[in-house]
Write a structure and sequence with these properties.
two-stranded antiparallel ribbon; binds fe (ii) ion; 14 strands; disordered N terminus; alpha+beta
């Protein structure tokens, strides 16, 4: 049972083209994907033939710079120390081209100061015009999957150009991470592993619930050195069962709702993620009790409070 998952390299991705524990599907039929993965809440790597890939599977640093390099975008700034488990970031504004140059120069976790996280594609019209939901996914999701109104959010497509992010899960949302350039390692943990992953206490970091477009819940486990976890401090982590998904340009990863994940780039990566609501029947309790509270709260209060400027990490010039 691996307990230390440290730095990775491009060679790692090449050496392990398929995880032993996560299926890799090639051009899956929508019904097959729905029955065996979506309905089961089972993660999968999806490889699409070149004629099946929407534009975002070919987005490179150069292509995005060409399309929206001059656009001012919000960028996460963790300061000189980079991202830590304290999630102490501010949101600053800079041209997309400059943010991409910073992100493209990063080769280790200690070098990440700036990252593009959860940037809604709708705020980048030239990217939104090119983006298309992969047909296998669009046809696999049914209107009847929607949760009741208090738990319902619109689907969202967002750009991530980030070297790594700590262990977290999304608020009752399924996700498809689509890689344009680079290669990324996702370390997934089933919701059943929650007792081994030390979720942050519910009220310990309320500010994170306000500034992120997609609500994210984090672990207390520091991730600054990858998943080289201190087992004296976090002994239960030794019982967690990580699933490793190495995902390359032109591929995607299906992350079911309430699955924990840690991400780290092998090389600087362009990732577009579609988030959508998972039906209530697939929410994974007891972890999902947090979503029962947070979904309506976010839906009815989050935007109002953000509009008032409360709790915001955005630095205004
Ligand atoms: Fe995530």
């Amino acid at each position: 049972m691996p307990t230390a998952i440290g730095a990775i390299s491009v060679e790692d991705l090449t050496a392990s083209p398929a995880s032993a524990t996560i299926d890799r599907l090639v051009d899956p039929h929508p019904d097959f994907f729905r029955k065996n993965y979506l309905e089961q809440g089972r993660p999968a790597i999806i490889a699409l033939s070149s004629d099946q890939r929407p534009a975002q599977f070919s987005w490179t640093f150069d292509r995005i710079t060409e399309l929206v390099g001059d656009l001012e975008v919000p960028v996460y700034d963790w300061g000189e120390k980079g991202p830590t488990v304290d999630d102490d970031f501010r949101i600053v504004s800079m041209p997309m081209g400059e943010a991409l140059r910073f992100a493209n120069a990063i080769r280790s976790t200690t070098e990440q100061r700036f990252a593009i996280c959860q940037l809604p594609l709708e705020s980048c019209p030239a990217l939104a015009a090119e983006y298309k939901c992969p047909p296998f996914l669009e046809q696999a999701i049914r209107p009847s999957d929607q949760p009741p109104a208090p738990f319902r959010e619109k689907h969202r497509d967002a750009l991530f150009v980030s070297f790594f992010r700590g262990i977290h899960w999304h608020n009752g949302r399924d996700a498809l991470a689509q890689i344009g350039e680079g290669g990324k390692r996702f370390v997934l943990f089933s919701p059943d592993d929650t007792p081994h992953l030390y979720p942050k206490r519910f009220l310990s970091s309320p500010i994170a619930w306000f500034d992120e477009t997609e609500a994210v819940f984090c672990s207390e486990i520091p991730f600054e050195k990858g998943l080289d976890v201190d087992l004296v401090r976090f002994p239960r982590f030794s019982k967690a069962r990580p699933l490793i998904a190495d995902v390359r340009a032109g591929e995607a990863l299906f992350i079911p709702s309430h699955w924990w994940h840690f991400t780290q780039a092998a090389t600087p990566s362009i990732v577009t993620v579609r988030f959508w609501d998972a039906p209530l029947r697939r929410w994974r309790f007891p972890l999902a009790w947090r979503s029962v509270l947070m979904k309506p709260y976010r839906k009815y209060l989050f935007r109002r409070l953000r509009k008032l400027g409360m709790f915001s990490r955005t630095v205004r010039s």
